[in-house]
């Protein structure tokens, strides 16, 4: 079944895998700099495999926030995968366990590419698209985590601007929807207003309240982004 | 960062359970059913709200102080290039070079 589609998926995944390598490399460097051991940084990418959640958690702890705030921000950031998994569910065969396992192959780019646009998904293509992204996400983190010990202060090389840049890249894709623009402005406003008073990590967490602007807004969909 | 090695393990464990669980719930349990309409609207806006907050605090906050720094310039350059639809790898390289050069000069 579908080995042609699987190979097509592998090919389609390559450009995203290239970007993922650079981003996960910077994750490795910054995580080690923030106090992760290289093993911890590598295991995070191997087991979590979610760029936005990993960088959100890292941004919070780098800013002085605790485990709870970091997990909270990562969870809110990751909540879109709940909606993506629900949309995908009818296209997956087998029992609940097998469907849950195949659901792990969802990353933004793969999900968007596998979407046939009629409510069904090409699961073989999706899994094929995810494989090179997973491999490069892992490999990039290994390189970054091991190099992170050697290069000293990452700020000297401007590495600290990579995760805001990564977030802006995903954000710009989201901003095609007018309501998302309002939510972005409100989220930024809430967080900056709280910075002088609130403990580290809380301003970003509180910005999640801006998503309530989506109440009654109906279906907003999940736009294609470039994040594994 | 103020986390101990043990707290980092706790964070990693929490992230693994959370991300895997979030991806598993839909396929395993909710297959074929729809969530209430209001949840779709809120979930769709969660990413832009949080992304904007993460960018704003990374760029304009230093501890509890607000202000601009060299990194603000680097991220501004990146934003302009992204709006012009430059490839992400190129944008990352440009942002790093600008930031590193300004840091070396100042």
Keywords:
heterodimer; A: 228 residues; mainly alpha; globular; B: 106 residues; 4 helices; extended
Textual characterization of the structure:
Chain A has 228 residues and is mostly helical. Chain A has one domain (3-78, 125-214). Chain A contains eleven helices and no strands. Chain B has 106 residues and is mostly helical. Chain B has a domain at 1-33. In chain B, a hairpin with a 2-residue loop joins strand 1 (61-62) and strand 2 (65-66). In chain B, helix 3 (70-83) packs antiparallel against helix 4. The interface between A and B is large, with 115 and 78 residues.
β-sheet strand percentage of chain A: under 5%
Low-confidence stretches of chain B: none
Determine the fraction of residues in helical runs of chain A and give it as a percent range.
Answer: 55-70%
Biggest sheet record of chain A: none
Largest sheet: spatial strand order of chain B: 1-2
What structural class do you assign from the helix and strand content of chain B?
mainly alpha
The rough form of chain A would be described as: globular
């Amino acid at each position: 079944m579908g080995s042609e589609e699987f190979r097509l998926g592998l090919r389609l995944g390559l450009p995203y895998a290239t970007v993922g390598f650079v981003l996960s490399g910077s994750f490795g460097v910054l995580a080690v700099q923030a106090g992760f051991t290289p093993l911890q940084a590598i295991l995070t990418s191997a087991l979590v495999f979610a760029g936005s959640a990993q960088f959100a958690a890292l941004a919070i702890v780098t800013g002085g926030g605790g485990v709870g705030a970091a997990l909270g921000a990562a969870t809110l950031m990751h909540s879109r995968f709940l909606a993506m998994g629900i949309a995908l569910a009818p296209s997956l065969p087998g029992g609940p366990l097998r469907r849950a396992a195949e659901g792990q192959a969802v990353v933004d780019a793969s999900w968007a590419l596998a979407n046939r646009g009629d409510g069904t998904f090409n699961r073989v293509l999706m899994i094929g698209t995810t494989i090179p992204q997973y491999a490069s996400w892992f490999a990039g983190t290994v390189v970054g985590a091991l190099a992170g010990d050697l290069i000293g202060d990452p700020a000297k090389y401007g590495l600290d601007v990579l995760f805001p840049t990564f977030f802006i890249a995903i954000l710009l894709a989201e901003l095609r929807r007018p309501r998302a623009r309002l939510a972005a402005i409100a989220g930024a406003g809430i967080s900056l207003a709280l910075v002088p008073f609130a403990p580290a990590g809380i301003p970003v967490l509180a910005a999640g309240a801006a998503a309530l602007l989506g109440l009654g807004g109906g279906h907003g969909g999940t736009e294609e982004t470039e994040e594994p | 960062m103020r986390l101990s090695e043990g707290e980092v393990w706790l964070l990693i464990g929490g992230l693994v359970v959370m991300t895997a669980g979030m991806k598993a719930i839909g396929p395993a349990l909710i297959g074929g059913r729809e969530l209430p309409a209001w949840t779709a609207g809120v979930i769709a806006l969660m990413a832009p709200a949080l992304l904007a907050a993460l960018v704003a605090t990374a760029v304009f906050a230093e501890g509890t102080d607000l202000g601009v720094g060299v990194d603000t310039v680097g991220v501004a350059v990146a934003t302009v290039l992204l709006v012009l639809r430059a490839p992400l790898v190129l944008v990352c390289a440009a942002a790093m070079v600008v930031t590193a050069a300004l840091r070396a000069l100042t």
